[in-house]
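note to self: dont lose this again. the chain is below, predicted strucutre after it. 173 aa total, dont forget to put it in the shared folder this time
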Amino acid sequence: MDILYMDTLDTPIGTLVLAADAEGLRHIEFPSNRHPVDRAGWVPGAEGMAAEILAMTSRQLSEYFDGTRRDFDLPLAPRGTEFQLRVWNALATIPFGATWSYGALARAIDKPDAMRAVGAANGRNPLPIVLPCHRVIGADGSLTGFGGGLPIKEALLRLEGALPAGGSGDLFG
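---
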């Protein structure tokens, strides 16, 4: 069992739980997750490199929510299948303020017929916001499934200017 060090960060979308080890950031969890992670082996009170990574993550996420950061520069260490890692790497290429369809994401990894598998991998992204799965929407422009819930997805897209300000459930209002 891996030991991961955890910390929390209060944000406009609720308290996020961050987990890292000396390799890098492993998880960002929303207050409510569609796919909760088993936190066995997660401990508070990080030391050394894990503490530095958690502090950097908290600072950069705070800057993102303050509107002063568009890109993240963090050591990442997500765990997943080879396919999931390809999808998550592609997420990192979606520009701030832009959205892609699941089809566009599937094409970006040279698997144009794998939209459902891409959607499933997107939904299991352990590093939301930093690997911006919230920027993936339906082909018709609709906001579709999101591990943190659609109101949080909408709020993140509004923060980035991908949706007009205001609207229903604006968490930044």
